[in-house]
Every structure is written in C-alpha cells, then in structure tokens.
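Rotation project, supervised by the postdoc (A.L.). Task for the rotation student: set up a whole-complex structure prediction and record inputs and outputs verbatim in this book. Inputs entered:
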Amino acid sequence: MRAQWEGLSERADVLLLAGDLTQHGLYDEARVLAEEVAGLGVPVVAVLGNHDYHKCEEDRIRRVIEDAGVTVLEGESIVLYVRGRRVGIAGVKGFGGGFAGACGSEFGEEEMKAFIRHTKTCALALREHLRAIADCEVRIALTHYAPSKTTLVGERLEIYAFLGSYLLGEAIDQVGCHLAVHGHAHLGTEHGVTSGGVTVRNVAQPVIRHAYNLYLVGSRDAAEPASPEMPVASSAQTGG
Amino acid sequence: MLAPDLTKHLVAHIREALAEDDRTNLLDVQVRIAAGRVFLLGQVGSNSQRSSAEEVAREIVPLGMTVVNELCVVTYSEPTDQERIP
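Outputs recorded:
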C-alpha cells in the first residue's frame, strides 16, 4: 500500500483505517503495515477488525502499529487539531447482532448472550466517546462493523447479523456526528445513512475500489473565511 | 455428480475451509458448483492468495470434481475524486 499512500499528505489531513489491518491476524503482517504507514505525514487513526483478532495477537498488532505513530481506538476517542479546527474521532471495532426486526438478543445459551453482550459493550463505548468529542467542530465515528444496514446492500441478507448491529447506529444517532465510517462488508454499498440521518460510508476496499477514498467532512460555509481544507482519507484493507 | 442438497453442503464446506485455513483466511470467495465443476469466483489481493485458495479448495472437493479458479487479482489505485460531506 505504500505506493498508493505516497503523497497522501498533499491530499488529506487524516487517514482513517477501518479495521482488518492484517489478513491472517499475524503480528508480522502488522509489522509490514507499520513500516508502510510510518512517515506518511498525516495522522493515522485506526480500529482493529475481526481478522486482526484471528490469532489472538491483537495486542501485539496494536502495539507495533502504535509504535509507528498510528492511533488505535478501541472504545476510545482522540481529538486532532487540523487547520484550526478540532476533529474528534470515536472508534471501536464493534460487532454483529443484526438490525431492527432481525437481530439477536442477550438471551438463552451463554454463547449467545456473550455475543450480544460484546456488541452492547462496543456500542456503549462508542456512545460515551462520541459524547467525549461532542464539542469538536468535526466529529467522526470509526468502526469495523457496520452501524447501518443501508451500506450492506449487496451482501446476503442471511449474514447481515454478522456484519453489524443497529446498536452501533443507535449510539451514533443518540449523540450525532458528521460521518460514520466502517469496513467489513465487502459486497456492500459505499453510501448509507443511519436511521437518525447520519451519513455512513462503507470503505471496504472492494466496495470503494480504490486504495482509499477522500471525504471532505464538516465543510465550512462558503461565506466563512477558511484556510484551505483537505479531506480525510478512509479505507479498510482486507478482511470480510 | 452429487445430489443437489449435498452439493450445497459442499459449497458451505469449501467456504468454511477458505475462511479457516491459515493459508487463505479468505471470507469473500464465492463458490458455485455446476456440471461437476467447482468454480471459485470473486476478488483477491495477490497471486499468492489466488493459488492458495485453489489449493485449499482442491483438498476439499471429492475425487472426480475439478476446481475452476476464476478468482481475479485486484490492486487498488488512488482515488481521483473526493466527496463533500456537510
């Protein structure tokens, strides 16, 4: 990816990575990524994806890319100062569970309860950290799993419950933000919106068909004096 | 040729293997079976992934069935446009 990221600092203010930083969940893959993102010249903010957990090396994966300067959010938030504005990003991997009318409940076998409990924990953390950045001029929710089924169109309905959860979307709608970015759904659709009207973008690379996409978020009014604005670049690398 | 219902099980097992096998860990490969042939469809990120997917699938399919590898290797370039989000 290094070749595609060359010159990114001239095109974007921030790079968001929506998870699946590795294919096999291996530390060695993350080490390669760390070398690629080091010195890009823009802040890089990431969440981990399901692939990054596959070999139980997620802590080492996180550390090696953090050592390269990447901010990894897992139920956390960060405020960046970009061209005189405060840009808040709340991030969490998220999880599945499904969407209104076809979703799981914390009921029955322990395995099922644990599944939904994890989603609830993620959604709660997302809501808390969106609140923590509520006073920022630009606010972004970054997840791996989808907060809305509108960006899943193209995927099989039967697997929606493994691709995201309305609980993430509800957290976003309760607090509000300018943009929600996610990955994970490779056969889905780029453009979507939460039930509450927040813009959602599925940036899985097979969906956007580019190394990354550029979003100019929270644009100033034309009448407002402004320093030149540059977009955030977003992508989710591998996975599914 | 396998009966249609067993063919569906085979599709599921091939996809399961492609996801779980450490040589692949691919969750997006589409698998179709027609006329005794197993087709691998979709996109992967490298020639190595493409050949590993075929290798894993060949280990699953019964004798007498062939694997047709129609996976495309894709690389992604930089975008030319940007989207304004108010």
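Student's summary: The first helix of chain B runs from residue 4 to 20.
Supervisor addendum: Chain B touches chain A at residues 22, 25-28, 43, 45, 49, 74, 76-79, 81-86 (CB under 8 Å).
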